[in-house]
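Key result, reporting period 2: structure in, sequence out.
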């Protein structure tokens, strides 16, 4: 994920900054506890495509 792209991307739900999880290929919104997929280096920034993070996953991000 290009750092410049990551700097300008924001959560489409709450407009918070996102964190890139390289291993899972996801962009994480801590505020909404959502993970947006990155497919073929393209972020899929649709709320319907995001998955909810479990409490354990949120705790691991801290």
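The corresponding designed sequence is given below.
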């Amino acid at each position: 994920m290009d750092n410049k792209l990551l700097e300008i991307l924001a959560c489409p739900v709450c407009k918070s900054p996102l964190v890139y999880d390289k291993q899972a290929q996801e962009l994480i919104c801590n505020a909404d506890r959502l993970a947006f997929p990155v497919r073929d280096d393209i972020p899929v920034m649709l709320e319907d495509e995001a998955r909810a993070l479990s409490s354990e996953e949120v705790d691991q991000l801290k």
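Strands lie at 19-21, 26-29, 34-39, 42-43, 51-52. The helical segments are 3-8, 55-61. This case is discussed further under Risks and Mitigation.
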